[in-house]
Every structure is written in C-alpha cells, then in structure tokens.
Amino acid sequence: MLKNFLINFLRMIIKCYKLGISSLYGPRCRFLPTCSDYAEEAIRIHGLFRGIVLTISRLARCNVLAKQRVDPVPRKRNHEV
Predict the structure, then answer these.
(1) Of 41, 47, 66, 75, which cross-links 30 as Cys (Cβ 3.0–4.6 Å)?
(2) Is the backbone peptide bond immediately before 33 cis, with ω within 30 degrees of 0?
(3) pLDDT of residue 71
(4) Longest CA–CA separation in the chain, Å
(5) Low-confidence ranges of the chain (pLDDT < 70)
C-alpha cells in the first residue's frame, strides 16, 4: 500500500513537472525518451527502488556536454522477474 502511494506520488510529481516547468522552458533533454518519460517508464517496468536508481543515473548523464541520442530504459533481466 505504501509502495503504491509512493509510486503514484512520484508519477504526480513527474506529471506536474511536465505540465509546469518543462512546458515553460521547452525541451532541454539530450536524450530520447525525455528524462521525465524515462523516469515514468523505469518505475513502471522495474519498480520503485530500481526505477529511482535508473532515473538518478539518467539525470546524472543528461547535461549540456552529452550528445543527443536514444537512451531507452533497460529491459528487465531474467532474475529480476
């Protein structure tokens, strides 16, 4: 129950970011999917903890020095299922 609350809370924060901050400044992410889309997908596919770890790693790589490229959420490994 707490896990679902946290997941929904994070999704709400991401949605607010997309509608508020991101829409004001326009697209700035160096990757596809965007970092906010990546975060939503990572949490959906990998769950709360691993999704957050993947998102933090992605945000650390997204900067003005990074080349624009496609960087999808990694698939679940067999032992994660």
Answers:
(1) 66
(2) yes
(3) 95
(4) 41
(5) 79-81
Other CB atoms within 10 A of residue 38 CB: 23
What local confidence, expressed as pLDDT, does residue 38 receive? 97
Of the candidates 37, 67, 73, the residue with the CA atom closest to the CA atom of residue 54: 73
Cβ–Cβ under 8 Å, residues 33 and 41:
yes
**Residue found by looking up tokens 């326009």 in the block:** 26
DSSP 80: G
What's the confidence (pLDDT) of residue 81?
A: 53
Q: How far apart are CA 13 and CA 10, in angstroms?
A: 5
Residue 49: its pLDDT value, please?
95
- Distance between CA 21 and CA 16 in Å, rounded? 8
Cα first-last separation, the chain: 20
Amino acid at 38: Y
Arithmetic mean of pLDDT over the chain: 90
